[in-house]
Amino acid sequence: MESQFDTAVSAYEHSMEEMPFREHVEAWSFLKAVGDVTGRSVLDLGCGSGLYTRRLRQEGAARVVGMDESAAMVEHSRRREEREGLGVEYLAADAADPAAGDLPGIAGSFDVVTAVYVLPYASSREALEGFCATARRALRATGGRFVAAVLNPEFSTDPQWYRGYGMLLSSQESPAEGTPGHLRAWVGSDVLDLDFFRWSAAAHEQALGAAGFDRFSWIRPSVSEEGRARYGEAFWANYLNCPHALIIDAHAGPGAVPDRRARPAEHNSAGPGE
Questions:
Q1: How many other C-beta atoms lie within 10 A of the C-beta of residue 181?
Q2: Is the pTM value of this prediction over 0.85?
Q3: For a Cys-Cys bond, which of 21, 59, 86, 144 suits 139, CB 3.0-4.6 Å?
Q4: Does the residue 225 lie in any domain?
């Protein structure tokens, strides 16, 4: 199956160097939220060209598997692995299909599941729930964590708000769940054009609850000390005031994995604006 990401390999691979916010805000905040992975097993959903998959392995994870629907991304990642020999595995599979979480070597095999900009590409509630179900099924029976960088449900719809960080986000002014939007990003000589879908905080939490996650926290990004020193406080002001992405840290306790169609669990988590 063709993916909108099949032609984006080069842009993804160079985006950390070309877009300062990716390294100094996104990676800094996301890896801090994931925490120490030494000796842990980690599944990276929507791994793309393997940027985070490789870093998780380099930071001490005992086993790291990258999963992506894009055959081109997986092929690229496997070629890099052949050259670098980090010991990372890559799998071509659609994580929006809960059956991906039941694959041999995936089901019940991980301490942590990660996903960076994966849930925003869910085009339906079923797909959103599917991503979360895959994450839960991949975790051990004793439970674990799903740490995901997602589109901020309240990102700025001012088309110029994020231009200084190398991207434009556009979306219809609509309260409807799954409202489509578009990302255009400039990565060196590459231009990245991707379609995404907006989901509320409640929709995210309902999907996570249905998958069997019982505790969620929303984390706002911050800037690394190196990023502040290199670019100055004023450079980051717009982004920090209204970031385009937030991080969800979802926990699942021990017990059977519920059917993905089950009613969402009750929760008392704080929303993204609290």
A1: 18
A2: yes
A3: 144
A4: yes
The encoded tokens of residue 1 equal: 């199956």
180 in a structural domain = no
Q: Can you list the residues of the chain whose pLDDT is less than 70?
A: 1-9, 255-274
Which one, of 53, 51, 56, lies nearest residue 37 by Cα?
56
User: Strands across the sheet with 144-151, in order?
Assistant: 88-92, 63-68, 41-45, 112-116, 144-151, 245-252, 215-219
Looking at the domain assignment, is residue 204 inside a domain? yes
* Residue-range definition of the domain harbouring residue 216: 9-153+199-251
Q: What is the CATH number of the domain that holds 31?
A: 3.40.50.150
Q: Tens of pLDDT along 54-99? A: 999 999 999 999 999 999 999 999 999 999 999 999 999 999 999 9
- Residues 135 and 150: their CA atoms lie apart, in Å, by 14
- The answer to whether residues 217 and 248 touch, using CB atoms and an 8 Å cutoff, is yes
Query: What's the distance, CA 199 to chain centroid?
Result: 14
Q: Is 88 part of a structural domain of the chain?
A: yes
pLDDT at 55: 96
Crossing angle between the packed helical segments 51-58 and 71-84, to the nearest 10 degrees:
30
SS3 9: helix
What are the DSSP calls for 119-161, one per residue?
GGG--SHHHHHHHHHHHHHHBBTTBEEEEEEEE-TT----TTT
Task: Assess contact for 247 and 146: CB atoms under 8 A.
Answer: no
